[in-house]
Amino acid sequence: MIHQLVYYSRNTVPGGDRAMLTNMREILSVSQRNNARDAITGFLIFDTQWFVQILEGERGKVTETYNRIARDPRHASATILNVRDVPARLFPNWTMGGAMRTPDVQEIYLAHGFGGPIDPTRLKSEQVVALALDLQAFEESRRQGRRLAS
Ligand SMILES: Cc1cc2nc3c(=O)[nH]c(=O)nc-3n(C[C@H](O)[C@H](O)[C@H](O)COP(=O)(O)O)c2cc1C
């Protein structure tokens, strides 16, 4: 069984889009290195004010990783939405995929009922997983397109 944890937290890094993009890139780069070592996969959604993340892997490693993340001063009020065991990874190809909310993914947010900013207090973990799966599919097709074009 694969352990899966879904949480949200509030971004504490100030600044405009550029600062946020840099922040997101730094987080993803360290995450990809550590998660490859710990066999953690998942997806990080960043909606300017809020982070929502799915972590999956061996139970002990997921807990250890979450505890480390929760202490990070780049966000606050980390709140677990759900933990469960799943038969297989949902994000097998991503040590940590991530998507900042940009205009090109707005349609995906809309399709999941997020016209405006995410309100994490009303989020259901299944909704998060469904949104992340579609964002993942979008990112994968975009990468595929880049490969074909080069
Ligand atoms: C929203 C958010 C998500 C993060 N996700 C991960 C993650 O999936 N894996 C990870 O190792 N670190 C993640 N981090 C970074 C950790 O908090 C921490 O800085 C990092 O693991 C420290 O790694 P190091 O000891 O190798 O420098 C995240 C940080 C934030 C703010």
UniProtKB/TrEMBL annotation:
Superkingdom, taxonomy of origin: Bacteria
Positions of the BLUF domain: 2-97
Transmembrane residue ranges: none
MF (Gene Ontology): blue light photoreceptor activity; FAD binding
Protein name in UniProt: Blue light sensor protein
